[in-house]
Design goal:
- The chain is an alpha/beta fold.
- Helices cover 63% and strands 13% of the residues.
- It contains eleven helices and six strands.
- Helix 9 links the parallel strand 2 and strand 3.
- The longest helix has 30 residues.
């Protein structure tokens, strides 16, 4: 691996260095294994072995695309793309998914044709020994790639590693079908090819599903959100933190926002010091560019404490309301502000709003109620 780090001129501890060198190792290994399997498959007239070789060649291409995608994703932001090019890695994964699916379809087609147009097999124990050895190599390569993918925080690299480990299981199927032929003369080659095709297609659909989810905007990692919440809520002067949103612009590029509950008597200067320190500390530690909104709260006012108790009583009896926050009683107008966080099972938000307004009207007939209903985004 040291040779590859020097070849790519990469720092062994950097995210880009880990991805590029691991992808380089995958390219070299898969090209060699694919060439060996295709040659053996052609000599033995085995569609299953040829299918394996083609699948290994697609793995090499997957590593090439991962490598190229990582290099392009590392480009600095510019006027056209101020948030950088990190999402190119997702587009790369999308291309990989399509290529895997095409490979699976073509392999399936060839295997079905072999059922109706069978060919004589010429499998030997030597060829099976070579395939078994390649299966062990693929398993070790996959395990290493998954480990490096987790270390670098690269979902694409982890997917490549999982696919590589799956290939070793596919090899077991090929070996089993070939052994049946050698021992009994019964050819299951075409059916083994169909089974392998299904596994390839399954892997392709899984990569496609995960990539589309990233592009559509799936929730941020719960661990990152939990750490950010802990960091923010532990800050002196911050009473509460809610409504966090994290926007992903690549595997390691986030922007985010969060609303903070601050005592209503805190000065603008004091608030600035709190927020500025948080922004600097969070970016230095987590590489997340945060912006903050504010909720003024007055927890020392007896009327507000009673108000919170009344709202808490309503929330406890409404199963779809997870929590409430931003409770504020406006002194001049007597308007009451409150936000509800609801779960995704609640479909009729209007019914909830009407029920809460009726509940509050009985207790605070002179007040206007401003209720905001939302879901969690992380």
């Amino acid at each position: 691996m040291l040779f590859l780090y020097r070849l790519f001129r990469q720092d062994p501890d950097s995210r880009e260095g880990i991805i590029l060198t691991t992808s380089g190792l995958g390219i070299i290994t898969n090209v060699f294994i694919a060439a060996v399997k295709v040659v053996i498959g052609l000599l033995a007239s085995s569609i299953a072995i040829i299918s394996e070789g083609i699948n290994n060649a697609s793995d090499a291409l997957t590593s090439v695309l991962t490598l190229v995608g990582t290099k392009l994703a590392g480009k600095h932001p510019d006027a056209k793309h101020p948030f950088g090019y990190g999402r190119i890695e997702y587009l790369t994964s999308l291309i990989v998914a399509v290529f895997i699916l095409v490979t699976g379809i073509e392999t399936l087609k060839s295997s079905v044709e072999r059922i109706f147009q069978p060919a004589d097999l010429a499998v030997s124990y030597l060829s099976l020994a070579i395939i078994a050895f390649s299966a062990v190599v693929k398993f070790l390569l996959g395990t290493y790639t998954v480990k490096m993918g987790k270390k670098a925080g690269s979902g694409a690299l982890e997917a490549v590693g999982i696919d590589s480990r799956n290939d070793s299981l596919i090899s077991v199927v090929t070996i089993a079908a070939s052994l049946v032929f050698l021992l009994s003369g019964v050819s299951l080659d075409a059916y083994a090819g169909i089974f392998i095709s299904v596994l390839i297609l399954k892997a392709g659909f899984e990569v496609l599903k995960d990539t589309v989810s990233d592009l559509l905007g799936k929730p941020a990692e719960s661990e990152l959100a939990a750490e950010l919440y802990r960091e923010i809520r532990a800050t002196e002067g911050v009473i509460g933190a809610v409504d966090m949103m994290l926007h992903n612009y690549g595997p390691d590029a986030y922007t985010g926002s969060c609303n903070l509950e601050i005592d209503h008597e805190t000065t603008v200067g004091e608030i600035y010091q709190i927020l500025r320190k948080l922004q600097i500390d969070i970016y230095a530690k987590y590489k997340v560019a945060m912006v903050f909104g504010l909720y003024a709260v007055d927890n020392d006012h007896e009327g507000v404490r009673e108000l919170r108790r009344d709202i808490a009583s309503f929330v406890r009896n409404y199963e779809h309301v997870k929590s409430f926050h931003a409770v504020y009683l406006e002194p001049e107008t007597n308007r009451i502000y409150c936000d509800f966080i609801v779960d995704y099972d609640l479909k009729d938000w209007d019914a909830l709003r009407a029920e809460f307004l009726a509940y509050m009207a009985e207790r605070y007939p002179a007040s206007e109620i401003a209720l905001n209903i939302e879901t969690e985004f992380v």
